[in-house]
Amino acid sequence: MGRVLLVDHDWFAREPLALFAQSWSHEVEQANDAAEALEKLTSFRPHVMVTNRGLPGPDGEELVRMVRQRGDTRTFIICLTGYTGEPPQTRADMLKN
What is the pTM of this model? Predict the structure, then answer.
């Protein structure tokens, strides 16, 4: 089916998503941080990347910017968060550029 890259430093948050995607016959790779995700984007070439906003180092939002600045407009990106501070639309608008 499709290739999915899951990016989260928390295995307990990432692994259930991996099992769910695999149950739908998707090929899944996992990364712990932005640097590992960028490597896997090149080698694995996922159709979808799901990233946590709260990654250590470059966070999920910065990862999204780095992916788009590299010219990758093919990968569909989902950025998840458990943060409750700002309105989500404000953050999403920032990632469009």
Answer: 0.85
Geometric angle at alpha carbon 6, from 44 and 33, rounded to 5°: 90
The secondary structure of 53-96, three-state, reads: CCCCCCCHHHHHHHHHHCCCCCCEEEEECCCCCCCHHHHHHHHC
* Predicted confidence pLDDT, tens digits, the chain (97 residues): 899 999 999 999 999 999 999 999 999 999 999 999 999 999 999 999 999 988 999 999 899 999 999 999 999 999 888 776 665 555 555 555 5
3-class SS of residue 19: helix
Q: Are strands 48-52 and 76-80 parallel, antiparallel or unpaired?
A: parallel
